[in-house]
Amino acid sequence: MHAVFAALVVLADATPSPTPTAPPAETVTPGPWGFVAVAFLAIAVVLLLWDMMRRVRRARYRAQVREELDLEQSEGERAAEATATDAEDIDADDRPAP
């Protein structure tokens, strides 16, 4: 067994190893289809970001309008309560004494 292994090692060392060569540049580049795919992805990402920003802006404006409406409604309720309280006070003062 050792003799066979030693022979294989000797044969492996005897065979020259190939020198590495670089492939031609035109086979490594993505080509026109690669450019089209990357351009499509870039355009899709830009459109998705644009849509997202529009939706975020719309949600922010809606929240701002809701806050303003809630503020106006609470001010209106306070004004109505104050008017009702003032009317009760006036009515109580206008009653004739028994």
Automatic annotation (TrEMBL):
The chain crosses the membrane at residues 32-50. Keywords: Membrane, Transmembrane, Transmembrane helix. It comes from the Bacteria. Residues 68-98 are annotated as: Disordered. This is Uncharacterized protein.
